[in-house]
Amino acid sequence: MDFAGLGPAGPAPYIGDGTPLLIAFGPRYPVVLTVFRAVGVFLILTASAMWFLPGSRSDADLVLLKLGASLFFLLCGLALVMIHHSDNMPEVCFDPIRRELRVLVKAADGLPHVVLRRGYDSLGRVRFHKKRVELYDFDGRLLLGLRLSDPARRAALRSQLRQLVPICM
User: In sequence order, what are the residues at sequence separation of 6 or more whose Cβ sits closer than 8 angstroms to the Cβ of residue 113?
Assistant: First the structure.
């Protein structure tokens, strides 16, 4: 493996006053997210259409069956629409002052709670790709994979980590 992380390869980009860099998790495949949301909307509309479309029978024995099926369609549709909602996604905070990375998850009260805290010195290596960043443990296990398409954030993260973590090309 080729490690090139201890010496700077060029001039470091200006990253400001050392404020933490926040990166939000996102869906791995955006097309799948779009399909899930479309199917979810279809199921929600189907749940309500069972009651309002003309020609639907309202016999006493069918009402209970329609109620159960429409509740099932409604709940499944809501689950598919909300599966990758931005409020449910954790955020990763790279803190240059404390030299640590934190994974934050919003609780029910809306406040972020720390679920993972790792110092930069406990990371094995970092690999930067065109659209993502992968953080590895010392034994080679993948700890975290993030989509990172913004070049400014990528440069800021690289400048934060290059002094402390080996960067693998």
Answer: 104, 105, 106, 107
Strand partners, 167: 126
Residues contacting 40, CB < 8 A, separation 6+: 76, 77, 78, 79, 80, 81, 82
Per-residue pLDDT of the chain (169 residues; tens, 9 = 90+): 333 333 333 333 444 445 556 666 666 667 888 899 999 999 999 998 888 877 666 777 788 888 899 999 999 999 998 887 666 678 888 888 888 888 888 887 878 888 888 888 888 888 888 888 888 888 888 888 888 778 888 888 888 888 778 787 6
Q: Which CATH class is domain 21-26+89-168?
A: mainly beta
Q: What token pair was written down for 108?
A: 């029910």
